[in-house]
Amino acid sequence: MDDETFRAWAHRAADWSVDYLAGVGERPVRAQVAPGEIFRQLPAAPPTEGEPMERIFSDLDRVVMPGMTHWQHPRFFAYFPANASPPSMVAEFVTAALAAQCMLWQTSPAATELETRVMDWLRQMIGLPEGFSGVIQDSASGATLAALLTARERALGFTGNAKGLAGGPVLRVYASAQVHSSVDKAVRIAGFGDANLVRIPVSGPLHGMDPDALDAAIRADREAGLTPAAIVACLGGTSIGACDPLEAVAAVARRHDVFFHVDAAWAGSAMICPEFRDLMRGAEAADSLVFNPHKWLFTHFDCSAHFVRDPKALTDTLGIRPPFLRTLGQDGFVDYNEWSIPLGRRFRALKLWFVIRSYGVEALRGMIRDHVAWARELAGIIAADPDFELTTAPILSLFTFRYAPAGADDLDALNARLVERINDDGRTYLTQTRHDGRFVIRFQVGQTTTTRADVMTAWAAVREIAAGLRAG
Ligand code: PLP
């Protein structure tokens, strides 16, 4: 492709993107295709000769788009958001043009130094004290794995990498059942073994882990000759937004000298609003904390902010310096590949820099405050509706509910059908979870372009579909 053709297609892609986002609210939120429908339209063999871009681009609309679920739809209330924004997209375009591999300081000094700077901006924005260093990871899962590997090495006096784990002590990790499955996965990959993830019971309105039960579990393990290695707390668990009492958990971690990691993947973004920071009190005592600007800070996936108190512990765990990565005379600068599991790294800091500068902190706060306010308002409406039950109160912008009309039996099955019908209908998109043994429907507000009217339109659609379900 020559320069002028590239220019024309880059403009066309920009126009397509603006038009797509302007009209995305008219599309069904969740893809409405059957399994295999897209695959069957794709030729089994690759083209031998190049095809005209015009044809490729028209196949984007004809073949691909019907199979897309629209995460940037203003009535996307499923899972957690993967929200984004125009400044982030512009930065992603530039990042794609640069196509830089930012694994070492030398392979793009600006990428490393911008990352250090914007991570410190983020640290200030969420109210973490000085003394934390930040790195952008590909995902919260990757950050939590890096944290648990560090915890493992710390518990083993940094000998696990050298000698392996065989014949070593049994290492234990403590978390409530409200943490995301990325913790289970990290426990497995880091070699702790599923059986050594100790579940601590939760209580209270925030469904947080009981610090006394945590303390007792650690004492019992020590007495049994096991080695407590890490506590993982959640600040905004995936299912219902559970928040562990970080201050009390931190005190237990300190008492027993156990590594303390906080997964704030979703809720961390809301900590830019000082009024929500009660939830994070105690996080300043953590060894590491992760949150995802790619969830709720208007920055494209992938962008996971990982803060660590002791970067040397992380680089002693993950850093490997083969001769082919030496940067003669420049070794020893921050080489972020040593902070992460993959070697290769995209220039992820650029989009954060664009977003934070373009909006400013106050506007970012305003959007998150709106989301929380609208979620609370709708939760109040649902609590007052005799046909519905608010099953968990809002934690920030997430709550759960279920349809419970008088006389209905098997509410689990009824609500499962309701979710299916809502998502087939397409006006909004909701997903489910289980809480206290019951099937409940999650509702979270966090999309960039969502308005209060979108929240209320979604609710009207849910009520209408629920009424039809009973009638039919
Ligand atoms: N932690 C929490 C609380 C989450 O909700 C999620 C994803 O929704 C994750 C971790 C995993 O995030 P990622 O996709 O960045 O690995």
From TrEMBL:
<keyword id="KW-0456">Lyase</keyword>
<dbReference type="InterPro" id="IPR010977">
    <property type="entry name" value="Aromatic_deC"/>
</dbReference>
<dbReference type="InterPro" id="IPR002129">
    <property type="entry name" value="PyrdxlP-dep_de-COase"/>
</dbReference>
<keyword id="KW-0663">Pyridoxal phosphate</keyword>
<protein>
    <submittedName>
        <fullName>Amino acid decarboxylase</fullName>
    </submittedName>
</protein>
<feature type="modified residue" description="N6-(pyridoxal phosphate)lysine">
    <location>
        <position position="295"/>
    </location>
</feature>
<dbReference type="InterPro" id="IPR015422">
    <property type="entry name" value="PyrdxlP-dep_Trfase_small"/>
</dbReference>
<keyword id="KW-0210">Decarboxylase</keyword>
<dbReference type="InterPro" id="IPR015421">
    <property type="entry name" value="PyrdxlP-dep_Trfase_major"/>
</dbReference>
<dbReference type="GO" id="GO:0016831">
    <property type="term" value="F:carboxy-lyase activity"/>
</dbReference>
<comment type="similarity">
    <text>Belongs to the group II decarboxylase family.</text>
</comment>
<dbReference type="GO" id="GO:0030170">
    <property type="term" value="F:pyridoxal phosphate binding"/>
</dbReference>
<dbReference type="Pfam" id="PF00282">
    <property type="entry name" value="Pyridoxal_deC"/>
</dbReference>
<dbReference type="GO" id="GO:0019752">
    <property type="term" value="P:carboxylic acid metabolic process"/>
</dbReference>
<dbReference type="GO" id="GO:0006520">
    <property type="term" value="P:amino acid metabolic process"/>
</dbReference>
<dbReference type="GO" id="GO:0005737">
    <property type="term" value="C:cytoplasm"/>
</dbReference>
<dbReference type="InterPro" id="IPR015424">
    <property type="entry name" value="PyrdxlP-dep_Trfase"/>
</dbReference>
